[in-house]
Amino acid sequence: QVQLVESGGGLVQTGGSLRLSCAASGSISSLTAMNWYRQAPGKQRELVATITWGGSSNYADSVKGRFTISRDNAKNTVYLQMNSLKPEDTAVYYCNADIFRRSSTRVAPESYWGQGTQVTVSS
After folding, report:
1. Backbone angles phi, psi at 109, to 5 degrees
2. In terms of C-beta density within 10 A (0-12 exposed, 13-18 middle, 19 or more buried), how is residue 17 classed?
3. pLDDT 10s per residue in the chain (123 long)?
């Protein structure tokens, strides 16, 4: 089985910073894209940032210039550095990864999700 475990959420004041981490473990052959999503109360889940195996990244317009996604392929870990946080960044943040399992014969990766970590930005 494969697990994604997130850490680093919490309560921070407006303008503060947090760093989220997400480590993938289990029967992993390789990871392709790794992503961060978020879901605020009453809203749909939205893609925040994505990063390829090679390190190419993309961001939602709402976080460009404030958030930075990075990954450590040797550790199967993705990070999200969040700076200049705003109250509207308050949400549950989810890690998502496209993974080829060792035992799988699939030609396409499977999508896995973490359990989510709460980020609350107070005004």
Report:
1. -70, 160
2. exposed
3. 899 999 999 999 999 999 999 999 999 999 999 999 999 999 999 999 999 999 999 999 999 999 999 999 999 999 999 999 999 999 999 999 999 998 888 889 999 999 999 999 999
Q: Which residue has the tokens 């940032």?
A: 49
**Cβ-count burial of 55 within 10 angstroms (0-12 exposed, 13-18 middle, 19+ buried)?**
exposed
Give the pair of three-digit tokens for residue 29.
């052959």
**Total Cβ atoms within 10 A of residue 102:** 10
The DSSP output letter for 109 is: P
- Tokens 């921070």, residue located: 12
Neighbour tally for 107: CB within 10 Å = 6
Q: Which residue has the tokens 């317009």?
A: 61
Task: For residue 63, give both structure tokens.
Answer: 């976080």
